[in-house]
Specification:
The complex is a heterodimer of chains A (222) and B (213).
Chain A: H1 6-9, H2 12-46, H3 48-64, H4 67-77, H5 87-113, H6 116-124, H7 129-159, H8 171-181, H9 185-220
Helix pairs in contact in A: 2-3, 2-5, 2-7, 2-8, 3-5, 4-5, 5-7, 6-7, 7-9, 8-9
Chain B: H1 3-39, H2 43-58, H3 61-74, H4 81-106, H5 110-118, H6 123-138, H7 140-153, H8 165-176, H9 179-212
Helix pairs in contact in B: 1-2, 1-4, 1-7, 1-8, 1-9, 2-4, 3-4, 4-6, 4-7, 5-6, 7-9, 8-9
Classes of the chains: A mainly alpha (222), B mainly alpha (213).
């Protein structure tokens, strides 16, 4: 067997459409996860013991079980409870819920990193809880949560490859299908690995740039 | 969901546990070699180690497994699927463990290394007796987290046909047509194992702290 990536490169438009599905599912999943994760972390912090315990258990279960099992439960189990989902919406919901659980832990650590004195000072100044969150706690935790948030985004990009198993037409599914059609499976998987590697490295670099910008912004005003 | 089905899942859990434990152990050895390479100060060792870590952290595990699964026969290595699965998981966790260890090795006080040097330790002796034990103690919590990650990631070897919890659950779900109870039970088994690992980890961490004090 000769290594001949040419047969794969001819299929560039198809690979592009798979890449597009991967990228938008990933970005939507991360954004949804950040928003939902922040809401969960905030509810756990201010919602009282019962809310904290219930949400905490859900988060632990989502973090303690494989993403693949969660997806199977949603995709194959959903129709039995009237939740008939196509692969793409199913993948998007699964990815968002999974990432929300992890992002909620990132924000929980973020809340814990803000000194109590700052929050008390805000209360003394008559700030409402919403004002304290938006003007004191969020800006102060931003620099702390950025590195783990970017790491998590990278993990989620890689996790999204799992969606190929429930036939979401994303990058992994598209490229491995081309590989099987062309009898060039090794070449296909090799190219697939390189594409992911490039996106991950780029995200990592961009994350570091964002971190530097943010820390300059944060400390130049001090 | 009958007790018989649950027993089948539990049996498959042994396979998941076995694959994960072996992969973590092999991955740990490779991670130590990678760390030694990174600390060697010689670029012929450092660059390949960096490339290895970057690649295996930058590519989805599913893609790595598919790559190894197709690559091994092509280069003339015919091994059973389970060996290919363990190779894939080991290489992946090695990269992550090496990255964790990097932080640990960076926190070893330079004075200790200089002291070992003055005391006549060779580079290898300093690594084995001073740097590695300290780094290991510092990165132990990260190692426990990595064990949990690998246990969850091992669900992906179902894709290459290895019978473990996930593959068993898939087969049972399609033959009995009861996906909800079966996948929920599989999730429960993973969750219980992971909670047990986390608990043991915290216990071990306390005893490690006791040992160093």
């Amino acid at each position: 067997m000769m290594f001949d990536p040419q047969v794969i490169i001819e299929k560039l438009p198809e690979i592009g459409s798979g890449l597009f599905v991967t990228l938008w599912l990933w970005i939507a999943g991360v954004l949804g996860g950040v928003v939902a994760g922040f809401i969960v972390a905030t509810a756990r912090r201010f919602g009282g013991k019962i809310v904290n315990a219930v949400l905490g258990t859900i988060v632990e279960v989502l973090r303690g079980t494989p993403f693949l099992i969660q997806i199977f439960l949603l995709y194959y189990g959903g129709p039995f409870v009237g939740l008939m989902l196509d692969p793409i919406p199913c993948g998007l919901i699964g990815l968002t819920v999974y990432s929300a659980a992890y992002y909620s832990e990132v924000f929980r650590a973020g809340y814990a990193s803000v000194p109590v004195g700052h929050v008390e000072a805000a209360a003394c100044l008559g700030m409402t809880r919403f004002q304290t969150i938006s003007r004191i706690q969020v800006p102060e935790m931003a620099l702390i949560v950025l590195p783990p948030a970017i790491n998590l985004a990278i993990i989620l990009l890689k996790e999204s490859a799992v969606l190929s198993i429930i036939t979401v037409p994303e990058l992994t599914a598209t490229v491995s299908a081309i590989g099987s059609q062309q009898y060039a499976f090794l070449e296909a998987i090799f190219i697939l690995a390189i594409v992911y590697w490039i996106i991950v490295e780029l995200t990592d670099r961009l994350g570091r740039v964002a971190e530097n910008r943010l820390s300059r912004l944060r400390f130049s005003k001090a | 969901m009958t007790p018989k089905l649950f027993t089948l899942l539990l049996e498959a859990a042994l396979s998941t546990l076995g694959i994960s434990l072996v992969s973590i152990a092999i991955g740990f050895v490779i991670a130590m070699l990678l760390s030694a390479a990174l600390l060697s100060g010689k670029s012929i060792y450092i660059l390949p180690a960096r490339l290895f870590i970057s690649f295996f952290r930058g590519v989805p595990l599913l893609v790595q497994l598919l790559l190894i699964y197709t690559l091994l026969p092509v280069i003339g290595i015919n091994v059973p699927g389970i060996v290919a699965a363990i190779v894939g998981l080991s290489l992946c966790t090695a990269a992550y463990q090496a990255e964790n260890l990097r932080g640990g090795f960076a926190s070893v006080p330079p004075g200790l290394i200089e002291a070992a040097d003055v005391a006549g330790f060779t580079g290898a002796q300093t690594f084995i007796r001073i740097r590695a034990p300290i780094a290991l103690r510092l990165t132990f919590p990260a190692l426990v987290n990595e064990a949990i990650m690998i246990l969850k990631s091992s669900s992906l070897v179902s894709v290459v046909g290895i019978i473990e919890i996930t593959k068993m659950a898939q087969d049972l779900a399609s033959s009995t047509y009861q996906p909800i109870p079966i996948f929920a039970s599989a999730a429960l088994i993973y969750f219980v194992i992971n909670s047990a690992i986390a608990l043991l980890g915290r216990y071990a961490e306390r005893s490690l702290k006791g040992a160093s004090a």
